[in-house]
Amino acid sequence: EPEVTQTPSHQVTQMGQEVILRCVPISNHLYFYWYRQILGQKVEFLVSFYNNEISEKSEIFDDQFSVERPDGSNFTLKIRSTKLEDSAMYFCASSDAGQGNSYEQYFGPGTRLTVT
Amino acid sequence: GENVEQHPSTLSVQEGDSAVIKCTYSDSASNYFPWYKQELGKRPQLIIDIRSNVGEKKDQRIAVTLNKTAKHFSLHITETQPEDSAVYFCAASRHTGGFKTIFGAGTRLFVKA
């Protein structure tokens, strides 16, 4: 069964550094999402992406965040200047909402980001 | 902004009993309501979902009900088993005018053997 993959599984970075989290969505999906989950807390929506542009973004997704689909398979989240409070698990998800008449989102295994 | 309230935050039941988790959403444009089970250190796993044009849905021991007028939806797990112990999240998702999913705060379910 096709799966969403994410790399790296764990990223440690220093405050102020830039990080890029990578995701490979399921190949025939057209809708892509990033979420974050601070340890022990709820899953928080960051951004959705469709047709090569941002569809929606949350208040968390400020100017330090950006997303890109640089080629036909990867979907990336960039954090420009990391802060301690960016430490969290970041999940990528994809769906074929509408196309296959299903809204189900398929989650990747997550990237644990630790900012020191 | 959009919000999803989830109750209770913790639920402890005896094996074989039922568990009920309730959620309320604020965005009237929400049209899809998934429920996720998350085990420690793992990704959220979809266990059941319901769309806004349906009032209830059942899959073996799991059922979900939706009251669109009241903006309430609930998860019911019958005949609970120790392996049902996990954190459960409800979510309300909008697929018109942009795609956005808001999660509830989660319910930690303990099933005692």
Helicity of chain A, in percent? under 10%
How many strands, which pairing sense, and closed or not: the largest β-sheet of chain B? 6 strands, mixed
| Overall radius of gyration of chain A | 14 Å
Q: What is the helix/strand order of chain B?
A: EEEEEEEEEEE
String of helices and strands of chain A: EEEEEEEEEEE
| DSSP strand count of chain A | 11
Strand content of chain A: over 45%
Quaternary state of this entry equals heterodimer
Percent of residues in β-strands of chain B: over 45%
**Sequence stretches where pLDDT stays below 50 over 5 or more residues of chain A:** none
Principal-axis shape of chain B: globular
* Main beta-sheet strand count, sense and barrel state of chain A: 7 strands, mixed
Q: Tally the helices of chain B: what do you get?
A: 0
C-alpha geometry of chain A: globular
Mean pLDDT of chain A comes to 93
By secondary-structure content and strand pairing, the structural class of chain A works out as mainly beta
Number of strands of chain B: 11
Assign a percent range to the helix content of chain B: under 10%
Give the helix/strand class of chain B: mainly beta
Could you tell me which chain pair has the largest interface and how many residues each side has? A-B, 24 and 24 residues
